[in-house]
Give the backbone structure.
Amino acid sequence: MGSRSVAAIAAVALSIAALYAETVTSLARQWASDDDFSHGFFVIPLAAYFVWERRASFTKAPAKPSVLGLVLTAGSLLVFIAGRFGAELYLTRVSLIGVLAGTVLFLGGWKRLGVVLFPIAFLLLMIPLPAIVFNQITFPLQGIASSAGEAVIAAAGVPVLREGNILHVPGRALEVAEACSGIRSLMSLLMLAIVLGYFTERRTSGRVAIAVAAVPIAIVANAARVAGTGLAAYWVSPAAAEGFFHTFSGWMVFVVALAGLLALQRLLEMARVRRERWVEARWSPAR
């Protein structure tokens, strides 16, 4: 890579950094203040590691600049401008992903973009969802957690009455609030599932399976937390539904959900090994 190419890449990088400095700063502030998206602090370092891991493949890939990269970059910048004038943070933030992809495509071509496409797409996990989308996800999750919690509590022989997202047990009313919907554990678990699949699975199908499984695992784990909180409030003390015990139960359930992901990965690995042995035995020449 010549000095002119390095200077051009450095100039482009500095321009992008200057343009999106305020956007990234606002992202960091939201990660620090909003627990639902605090996992965003880990996304950029992980994406940078994924790029660094691919540096040899990126260099070996032929550089064939594509004018379509300029089109993608220009379109993403228009999205950025629309977001600024419309005071829509999501548009300004997601446009950064398009600018990065378009820049790589314009300077390096399709082959090089393919090498770093996963790290660039991974950055989407750092962007908080728009409020309208977030609410559309949160409300059904609250309903699922409330219904499942009611069913488990009732199955345990504890009298329970559900009114919307409020569970009434003797001596206590438990509200399955937005913070208890499970969206926080779902977002964090999804990120960890993608990272786990990346490091442990060689097949794309296995990686996708682990990522997809994070959704039902997170929902079931959160429903178990709601049910456990109701049972603890009835059997132990109403204080078990709030304060330290409530927070600690959230961490414990997340650890259990993560263990579920690890167990799934192990099952996929065992299935892959068995299939490879079966194929080897089937097609190996007879002795």
